[in-house]
Amino acid sequence: MNSIALPLVLLGLATGIAIAHAAPRPRVIAFVAFAVASSLAASLRLPAAAFDDAAFACWIFVAACAAAVLWPRMPGRLVLLLAGMGGCCAGALAASSGGRPEGYVLAPTIATLVLASWCLRHGARVAVHVVASWLIAVVLLVASVHALPVTPGDRPDHLE
C-alpha cells in the first residue's frame, strides 16, 4: 500500500475510540498529546525506505488501540501512552512519505472521539465495541493481503 490515507484515517478512528474511554480531563490531554506528537514526528526527516516500517507500525497501533477499548476501566496513563504513540506512528508515516498527517488523522480522531464519548455516556457501549472489533478485522485483512504472494493478475501489464 503506497497511500497514507487509509492507515492514517483508521489510526485516527482507533485512537479516537481509545481516548473516548478515558475520563473527560485525560481525554482532552490525550487528544492534545496525539495532535502534538503527530505534528512533531511529521517534521522529522525520514527516508522513503522507512515507509513500509511506518505503515506496519500504524497497522499494529490501530489494532492495539482498538483492542484497548475492551479493557473495563482504562487507566488515564494508558490513554496518554496510546495517544502519544499513535501520534508518533502517524507522524512517522507522513514524514516517510513526505506529507503532513493533520488532514488525514485529526479530523477522524476528533469526530470519533466526540461520537464515541456520546455513545458511551448514553449506554451504547456495544456500538463502540463493534466498531473497535471492525477495526481489528480490517487490520487483520490488510495484514493477510500483504502476506499473500503476488499473482500475475496483481501486476500491471507491460502494455500500460
UniProtKB/TrEMBL annotation:
Listed transmembrane segments: 54-71, 78-97, 103-120, 127-148
Keywords recorded for this protein, A-Z: Membrane, Transmembrane, Transmembrane helix
**Protein origin, superkingdom:** Bacteria
Q: What is this protein called?
A: Uncharacterized protein
Question: What is the species listed in this Swiss-Prot or TrEMBL entry?
Answer: Dokdonella fugitiva
